[in-house]
Design goal:
The protein has 4 domains: 187 residues, no CATH class; 126 residues, no CATH class; 225 residues, 3-Layer(aba) Sandwich (Rossmann fold); 247 residues, P-loop containing nucleotide triphosphate hydrolases (Rossmann fold, 3-Layer(aba) Sandwich), CATH 3.40.50. It is an alpha/beta fold. The protein is elongated. It has 33 helices and 27 strands. A 7-stranded parallel β-sheet has the order 15-16-14-18-20-13-21, with helices on both faces. Strands 1, 2, 3, 4, 5 and 6 form a 6-stranded mixed β-sheet that branches. A 6-stranded parallel β-sheet has the order 22-27-26-23-25-24, sandwiched between helices. GO terms for molecular function: ATP binding; helicase activity; hydrolase activity.
Length: 835
Amino acid sequence: MGWQTDGTPFRTCLQLIEPTHSRGGWPLRVILQDRADKDVLREVDAEALEQAARLVAAPQETALPQADAEEAHSAAGAAAAAPPVDADAAAVGGTGIAPERDALAPGAAEAGAADAGALPQALAALPAAWQPHLHRAAKDLAKWRRIQPSLQQSEDSPVLRSELSQEEAWQLLTQGSLRLMEAGYSVFLPAWWERIRRWRPRLKAKIKSSVGSGPQAMFGLQQLMQFDWKIALGDIELTEDEFRTLLEEKRKLVQIRGQWIQLDPEQLRQLEQVMQQVQKKQGLSFRDVLELHLLGSQEGEEEYGFERSLQMEVELNEHLQEMVALLNHVQRPPLIEPPVSFHGTLRPYQLEGISWLLFLRSASLGGCLADDMGLGKTIQMITYLLYMREQAAQDGQDDGLSAPSLLICPTSVLGNWQKELQRFAPMLKVHLHYGPNRAKGEAFKEACEGYDLVLTTYTLSHLDEAELTQLEWSSICLDEAQNIKNAYTKQATSIRSLKGQHRIAMTGTPIENRLTELWSIFDFLNPGYLGTLREFTHHYVSAIEKSNDPELIAKVQRLIRPFLLRRVKKDPAIQLDLPDKNEYKTFVSLTAEQGILYENYIKDMFERLDSLSPMERRGLILAALTKLKQICNHPSLMLKEPSGAPWQQRSNKVERLIEMVQELRQEGDKCLIFTQFVETGHLLQRILEQELEAPVLFLHGGTPKVGRDRMISEFQDEAPPSGGRQPGIFLLSLKAGGTGLNLTAANHVFHFDRWWNPAVENQATDRAFRIGQTRHVQVHKFVTLGTLEERIDEMIEKKQSLSQQIVGSGEQWITELSTNDLKELFALRSEWVEG
């Protein structure tokens, strides 16, 4: 026996019609759709249909269940293309029934009159070919009632209802219609349902127009916002009062301002829960507002406990829109006028950086100045301090700032800061909190009075936490802020406990290894902004470090963008502002060990000097120059220690070199490092390879030609050598590598120890700064404070033309100085030695 197709000439469809007024009942209609012409639709009375089913003899049905299933599937597909019965009706799946068509086609009465027989009058107008099959329609109605019991009048009266309550209509719209469709039936629903069923409520916090204006316009991340709640469904917005009224009425279908909306109880519960939690927190803070604006609602889900079906938005007023545009670098803050007391010239991008920091200060927000190395972060910070001092004086504080600022830096750059401050801002009163004689206890606060800036180190930030927490600082600045990358070290914890009106971090490498380092810096700048470390790790760190998720990376970037300013040398706008070659001096101090070695050597030399012949005297002085330079480089060179001897924390010059090379290598830059001494080269090669885990080339007088050519080729080549990593660090002895080489792959040049003939240093620099160089070259010259190196550097600076003549022949001229002049030249200034 084969499969047989159902010969019923029509399909049975259900139609739900919206009420004539918002609180009325929802009419139900039974529609018969012509299989041959789906545009032909007949509305029939359900009760009459079931009565007719009992009168009309049912034909023998031989179709197997599979045929029924096929027919049901076919019926559902045909119904999907049916036109609407009225203007507000649509079939599930987005199709409808034409509004202008009558439920009964013209001529229907004539067509069916002959065979009407005993059919109820309500069905007599149906086509004669349909009448023998009405029992099938009645069976469909019975099946509807089993699928959706609410369609039945009552248990005692198994008849299809003619009208549904609002609750029953909502059940049919949201669930019952889907079940009927799955069973193969077509359900015609109001046309607007397809549109509004996709709507999800959006909770809007509309910030009041007064927030962000007036004298208290800027407030910090923890400031609570005044706002009004709005609940948006599509293009309909409800006020909080309207929403509360609907909650009390517990209505699920509401007509508001001429449009129907659905109110899902679960979504309403979520909305109410969020509103209650915000109220429990006493409102939304600026941090909440900023995060919601930057990321949208999803990032707030866990905090407020709502699910993805609910969205929360913030509607900024005009003042906050402008502020957020500035924070996102969409707009630039107004440029300040450079302080009149600044001794120097600011480049345009530097003035923008200072203006950005001052804008953040006005909003009580911390910022990270993350410019590329060599773009002048130090200059920008000094100018910031000068500007604040001049503004305070204009405001009637004749002595400048009411409270000093605090700058914390590595010991290796402490001297550099003092020199740069003296050079560019001699008006600033700077107090150095360092060394064995530094003020302690109650004397510290008194020692800081009258100063604009207090300089100290990361080590002392922990050791002297009791002193540093006595004041509320005008600003707290961290130089080389990656020093607090480990969030729970005593040092980082102590620094976060400091009180200040404004917080600034400066670093060229806000992330060195892990994303948690960024969190540590930002938690110092704006406590709590990125949540707790555990939350930040859960939301971002684990997934990013595991799978490098680009979406999460983009979210972190959006979060940090308002508080991080980074310009790089490769930026065309920056390069246009820079000259071809930039020279910088990096000042470092001696460690205690170096200071003792230096002083003892000088003492021993002067005890022997006057008893020597002129020739021996010259030899001793030249030997002293070498020994003192080696002491300034690293104590192990003077002590002739074996290669495996510990080197850490014994030379600030070495420590600073490592920091700078790490930063430039992370940017993909290459560097040359010149030294006068082969022993120093070997020491630096070992240390740099160990710390950076990268190959370091070293060319010196003992390097054979084959090895020399290979090194130059590897360094200059863009592609790494087979089986290895491309070298980006090239150590050279000054005499062997200072002339005749083309090393334009490098755009950084370090003079680790100084040769006092500027022409010799310039020749070495020209290994990188020459024809073929397409990038700007940065030259870094190390000077050890309080030593011979600083004295001769000062001499070159003060009398450049004369000193070139004097020093032009090298260092022989020093041997001709008198003993008193030598003592003045060699003497160690102990204030620059670590305590």
